Amino acid sequence: MPKRNLPLSKVYQLLEPGPVVLLTTSRAGHANIMTMSWHTMMEFEPPLIGCIISNRNYSFDILKKTRECVINIPTADMAEKVVACGNSSGSKINKFEKFGLTPKPARYVSAPLIDECFANFECCLFDAGWVNRYCLFVLEVTQAWKDPNVKNPQTMHHEGKGNFMIAGERIKLKSKMK
Amino acid sequence: MPKRNLPLSKVYQLLEPGPVVLLTTSRAGHANIMTMSWHTMMEFEPPLIGCIISNRNYSFDILKKTRECVINIPTADMAEKVVACGNSSGSKINKFEKFGLTPKPARYVSAPLIDECFANFECCLFDAGWVNRYCLFVLEVTQAWKDPNVKNPQTMHHEGKGNFMIAGERIKLKSKMK
């Protein structure tokens, strides 16, 4: 997908709705993908994102050590691949090859962008102070990419056990909220 | 709405998709409502929820002091009221009266349930260790309620500046994920 730079001030608009994301990491030339739903915005700009990543995940140690990752947002046409990434471990397979996803080099981090996702946020580990206590990683987005042709993405929102809500209608109300 | 006890093990299924919620607090007999979108699950059971609440909000001090609140999940038929709660401050008005919302007594906490919301989670402040650093409140859900008649709720998901995505189609995939 052809991506353009997305201003960091707009990152929250894509994450605040709560989509399932794919988190990519890389260590010693081996890239991995993890499906993740437990995240929240923590600051607008520079964008800080809080993520809970279980220490049973292969990505946990890699993120802790490399301090870099990419948050990729998939759409419902990728549903089978999103679930496949969640059902398998990077300790055993190369998920990019196995599930036919395309890694693209990032600008600032060693973890790759997933080309099929309409948005990609390059992140550095900003605060590891609660990694041991809650498996909470505070990430800072340093570079954001988005496909400018995607307007109302059909993001996936996990309701547990493989049940997903797909983004529906959009409405706009008069609001003073950011 | 007629609510029933919801097992605490199922709370994540309603919050993980990322809906806008209404957070209620109470101090000295005065109840307040705050619109909130920056939250994430942090643990399945007992359910822990991480919430970012700006210290510019009237609810910030109340939650810090009373250490109790209720997380209420509204649906799109309440959109005008949800935005009105976000556009006003409880320091000046009684939002329940002003916006025609119905407070119901909770079981364990002094903050009221919003009757019009299909789900209500009574919460205690579990960890205030990062309230000063990130305005992060770690809440524990001690009692959950849900309207058993609501199956595929039309939750609201904020995309910034009064733009909302409304929950659409549901799909189920074969998954080992919790």
Descriptive account of the structure:
Two copies of one chain form a homodimer. The model of chain A has no long low-confidence stretch (mean pLDDT 97). The longest helix of chain A is centred in the middle third of the chain and has 9 residues, at 58-66. In chain A, the strands form three sheets. In chain A, strands 1, 2, 3, 4, 5, 6, 9 and 10 form an eight-stranded antiparallel beta sheet that branches. A two-stranded antiparallel sheet of chain A has the order 7-8. Chain A has five helices and twelve strands. Chain A is globular, with a radius of gyration of 15 Å. Chain A has one domain: Roll (Pnp Oxidase, Chain A), CATH 2.30.110.10. Chain A has 178 residues and is an alpha+beta fold. Chains A and B meet through helix 1, strand 4, strand 5, helix 3 and strand 12 of A and helix 1, strand 4, strand 5, helix 3 and strand 12 of B. Strand 12 (163-172) of chain A pairs antiparallel with strand 12 (163-172) of chain B, so a sheet runs across the interface.
CATH class of chain A: Mainly Beta
Number of strands of chain A: 12
Low-confidence runs of at least 5 consecutive residues of chain A: none
Kindly name the structural category of chain A: alpha+beta
Please state the second-level CATH architecture of chain A: Roll
The geometry of chain A reads as: globular
Largest sheet properties of chain A: 8 strands, antiparallel
Give the count of helical stretches of chain A. 5
Overall domain count of chain A: 1
